[in-house]
Amino acid sequence: MENGFNFLDPFSSINLGIADSADGIKDWAISNRNIIQPVKDVFNSFVVAIDSALNTVPPTIMLVLIALIAWQAAGRRTAIMVAACLLALGLLDPNAWGLAMTTLAIVISAVVACLLIGLPLGILAAKIDGFEKALRPLLDLMQTIPAFVYLVPVVMLVGIGNVSGVIVTIIFALPPLIRLTSLGIRGVNASVVEAARAFGASPRQILFKIELPLATPTILAGVNQTIMLSLSMVVIASMISVRGLGNEVLRAMGRLDAGKAIVGGLGIVILAIVLARISQGMGQSGRERGYRHWWQGGPVGLILRATNRTPKTPKPMNMTEESI
Fold it and tell me: pTM here?
């Protein structure tokens, strides 16, 4: 005998068939994977190219290159710390460096995709109030859904592998970049924009020469958050056969191998420190760095000074009678 409706427990007698509908979506996704295949091929080519480039370069040369990038972006002290962290990473385990480069390739791929998607959406959200209001609930949903939930639909559509890991990471790490890009542009002083408009600047000139430069620190804070969230997905994405340090941690947990788990975990932490320091340094202003332009410091500035090719900064013209 079927149970009737119970006002004290109404949900036990109501079935909306959501689970059956989800199974139908799964069947459709499996039967139409060929539609997604071109997108998967593009992502796969991009990830493989970056992974091959990072793993082809000898570790010593790659360590020096990353340290030079850190020096240019954040200063000499940060470069020394980055070099020490990478040296410690390589000494953790003979396989740690290669796994770290694979993880770095996945993070770079996801961050580049987030920049290509997030910056235009953030600019549109800053310029169009209706678009920002419509986008806000979607961003809230993307940030509040547990990361594990992303794995199921992505695997149904794309399958397992590094491409799925990149797509999951993009979905998880994209919202902060969109929010902070919109916030940075909206936070630009309105009087500066009005002054530029009064002098005849076009909307495109205002955007690229005033709003984006003034909003750069806030946007770079969003990039930093995107990088950190991408790294936080490394272990979770390894559940769908994403290679790298996260996969090492997952395998170590399955085998109760504390040594491998510590090596993978410390590798992820070191990689996070390196990327965070470099991205934070990129957000510093010229006054904080001690010079006006990026090319005046770091290895680029050293080379320019050594070859006496330092570009001269144009001096502001004095408004005297002769100039008039």
Answer: 0.82
